[in-house]
Amino acid sequence: MPNKRARLLVVLVVLCGFLTVAGARPASADTLTDSLSFDDTPLTVQNGRFVDGNGREVVLRGYNVSGETKLAENKGLPFASVADARKSATALRALGGGNSVRFLLSWAYAEPVKGQVDTTYLANATAQMRAFLDAGIRVYPDFHQDLYSRWLFNSGSWYTGDGAPAWAVALGNYPAESCGICIMWGQNITQNGAVKAGQYDFWHNRYGLQDSFLATAQKTMAYLKANLATEEFAGVVGFDPYNEPYAGSYDSGQNSRTWERDLLWPFYVKFRARMDAAGWTDKPALVEPNLFWNGNVSKEEGGLLDVGTLGSRYVFNTHFYDQKAISGILMWGNASDGQYVGDFGTVRDRASALGTTAVVSEFGHPLNGSTAGKAPTVLKAMYQALDSRVKGANWWSTPAGSGPVLSGTQWQWDLYNGRHHELMNDNPGKVMTSGDAWNDEDLSAVKLDDSGTAVLRQDSRLLDRVYPSATSGSTVAFTYEDRSRDGSTTLTWNPVPSSLPNVSSLVGSGQYAVLVWRSGSGSAPTELHLPASFPTAATTVVSDLATVYGPPPYTSSTPVGAAVEPGGTGSRRLLLTDSDSGVLHYALVTNGATSPSASVLSAAKSELATWTVQKFG
């Protein structure tokens, strides 16, 4: 970046000082409820992984909070109140097993008047974000958009959008919006002339649109930095600059790949500079490629192929939806074992080639409509592919091919699912209440029951999962058999093979996870999230470190122990402590056994030890 531009950015961040409001949080605060000495450190990107301050590999799992931001009913905020945000955060941790959220923000509400940032909106968004940080949940904000802007759509339209402010649309004098014969809202991206023109203008910075967005983003980040306590800000992972970028239309001689290189990537470089100027230097930008780069129906070449090495200042951030399954036509049956290991393997490979880590910041499937019956298998296959790049039927025979465990946030976690009151495109004659209240979508994993209690809409076995939230060293292989259900059918895609009879007997019909890792030089333990279906007193751990039924409370001298997760939500974790470096370790965690005998535990340990040597050397 030229020195002149850099000096201008410094001036801008100084001018942003007016955004700090009275009553800002102090520079320091008490540590999180239930936190231990090794908790709550900032994350960085090192050697292609998220790493905490103790040198542990971190996996982020959680949800998008939330599609409510797309709506006008709560003025572009995820929640109607901070109390609702706290309720949502507690449920997300305790019921959904999440340790992170992608926190949606709205450009339209952050800058409702050109050049004027709404500090009331930023204050409310910060307070709601704080509810998640205080629950021990890491956050990465996202300036969200879909179909560019709601103000492109007329009051009687079948569809709506979100993102750009009304003033940005007014500048463009866009044609009347029309998608023609569109079965799904996403077709507007490539078929609606108004949407295409708005996207095109943004990427070409017509009317200074991109400059305005970047200035607002910087002021937003400066505000968050100034108004979150030091410990809270440590829980902010980074920033997702722009949801699902698309060119709108290509210039003569341009294609998707050159558009990424010549327009999208320079935008991210500018955004990265704004992060630095706002005090986010040590946090990565979670950058998304062309949204169609990995589509399995609509597909365009991309994936940031021509931007060189991203390194530690960026994260490769992508989405994945099974367009064939959602269509209801191109995939007739359900998803099966290993359905998406190739797709998610491509994500791993692309991140590795870029010299960074990856996060799948959106994935999911509709829970209502003609294809909703596919959801149990589609989601199970997606989580399976996040865990390992080896299908269940092959995992025990070829575990070394697992690859890194991917971070991911499911779409979505909407507390108001089915209880909205959204005037679609400000039309009082079109009040949306059902589902997500946005373009007939219905993907939320949660809702409120009639008593106002948060309840899951999907199988808890699927959502509340064992996963290695922090690995002391490097993960070599991981798998989790969740035994989630498709109706009354229990889905078992990764049975323990008959060659391990004692392990198989120990697991029985229960859920189980296996983690193989190579120890590092740090003293903090390896952590796995314990779902509610794994009561501490009924959890069995078979590891080279120790073999126990009902892990004892964690201490630094306890090889296998249990503790609550930070944040005061009552969620729990398993902690595995080694005292070496560069040594291969394994751990089987299951809820399938009832008071197993010492002989059975010993036999299972012997089988796993032999298997580990055979498969990993």
TrEMBL record:
Keyword annotations of the record: Glycosidase, Hydrolase, Signal
Gene3D superfamilies xref list: Glycosidases (3.20.20.80)
Signal peptide as annotated in the record: 1-29
Signal is among the record's keywords: yes
Record domain Glycoside hydrolase family: where: 52-396
A molecular function (GO) term: beta-glucosidase activity
GO terms, biological process: polysaccharide catabolic process
InterPro entries, alphabetized: GH, Glyco_hydro_5, Glycosphingolipid_Hydrolases
Family per record: Belongs to the glycosyl hydrolase 5 (cellulase A) family.
Protein name: Endoglycosylceramidase
Organism: Streptomyces sviceus (strain ATCC 29083 / DSM 924 / JCM 4929 / NBRC 13980 / NCIMB 11184 / NRRL 5439 / UC 5370)
Lineage of origin: Bacteria, Bacillati, Actinomycetota, Actinomycetes, Kitasatosporales
